[in-house]
Amino acid sequence: MNDVRFAVLGTGGIGRRTLDVSREKDGLTPVAACDRNGVAVDHEGLDVPELLEATEGNIASGPEDGVNDDIATDGGAKADAGTATDGVKQHGEEAGIVASEQGRPTETPIDDIIAESDDIDAVLVALPNLEHDFIPRVAERFAEAEYEGVLVDVLKRSRVIGMLDDREDRLKESGITFVCGAGATPGFLTGAAALAAQSFVEVEEVEIWWGVGLKSGYEDNRGTVREDIAHLDGYDIETAREMSEAEIETLIEDHDGVLEFHDMEHADDVLLERAGICDAEDVHVGGVLDVRSDKKPTTTTVSVTGTTFDGETGTNTFELDDVTSMEANVNGPALGYLKAGVRNNRAGHYGVFGPADLMPGF
């Protein structure tokens, strides 16, 4: 496989970690990155250490150009002309990518990446989806520009998959291979469930239980924490988006830094269903988030229960070692699925694919 040239939309937590992890992966060259105020492009390869240093603390960094007025930033708060820097650890027109020697200021960061996309094999959309149709609309913009290549996201919510499927014909026409839900869950653990299901002729239940420790706290993981709060009892995506930073910090304090989730709306369900493995209603996702400790509060497991060809009922369990971090389990798989997407794209396979679609068929 030839070297893969890729871009990253957003240099908050996920975007920065993806650039960092890519240095340890063979065959990957980051050539472009953007945040809300700047863009950096070098088709010979970005100077990743310099870019990471310049964007340190660049937690709220979602491009907000030209997609109506409701783009959520990587810090999670709804952005508008007056509050675009609300909740941003490092902010201002001279912060983020524009502080890099490789960066330049822009008011249209996504369009600037699209303008360079003829020489970009894949784009990782490292932005939160606090507006349900945000990432699907970003995909549509690439399709309208006749981009031929791969788009990858790490979105979580089930309903977004349908929005991408609604745009699949247009993506195919352009020559886009879109790999959706390619992080940890959905993503890594969805693929693990697809493998674990191979022992059975019928899958009865899939249970995903995750544990994440974030010693760096809410301050350095605003987008992730805000999205997860939307899954708590009494909250939804709208209320989470409108919460102030002080309200979120109070919520975290009230829970002693540990948030527990049950029956989350994670896209593992529809992604496993569309791969023919089980019904969406038979997939259950929950977990525990500790924003004050790097130690996982619980072990991450995937359990698949089903019936074998000879009539036996059993459960296959996949377990992640507690020493593997969120960064390792999100960004490593995201880059792996990006490579898989490029292989499929070069083979002429276009459209919308989930993690389970890229595993052995059921």
Strand content: 15-25%
- In CATH terms, the superfamily of the largest domain is NAD(P)-binding Rossmann-like Domain
CATH class of the largest domain: Alpha Beta
Distance, first to last CA: 27 Å
- What is the name of the CATH architecture of the largest domain? 3-Layer(aba) Sandwich
Could you state the order of secondary-structure elements as H and E?
Answer: EHEEHEHEHEHHEHEHHHEHEEEHE
The whole-number mean of residue pLDDT values reads 88
What count of structural domains? 2
Uncertain segments: 60-89
Helical run tally? 12
Shape: globular
Sheet with the most strands, sense and barrel status: 8 strands, mixed
- What is the helical fraction, as a range of percent? 25-40%
Using the CA coordinates, give the radius of gyration: 19 Å
Write out the strand line-up for the largest beta sheet, numbering strands in chain order.
4-3-2-1-5-6-7-13
Give the number of DSSP strands.
13
EC number: 2.6.1.121
Family: Belongs to the BioU family.
Binding site for NAD(+): 10-14, 223-224
Pathway: Cofactor biosynthesis; biotin biosynthesis
Give an account of the 3D structure.
- This protein is of the alpha/beta class.
- The protein has two domains: 4-185 and 328-358, Rossmann fold; 188-322, no CATH class.
- The chain has twelve helices and 13 strands.
- The protein has helices spanning 13-22, 48-54, 109-115, 134-144, 158-166, 168-174, 188-196, 222-229, 237-242, 245-254, 268-274, 326-346; strands at 4-9, 28-34, 38-41, 103-105, 122-125, 149-153, 176-179, 202-213, 258-261, 283-290, 301-307, 313-319, 351-353.
- Helix 1 (13-22) crosses helix 12 (326-346).
- The longest helix is centred in the last third of the chain and has 21 residues, at 326-346.
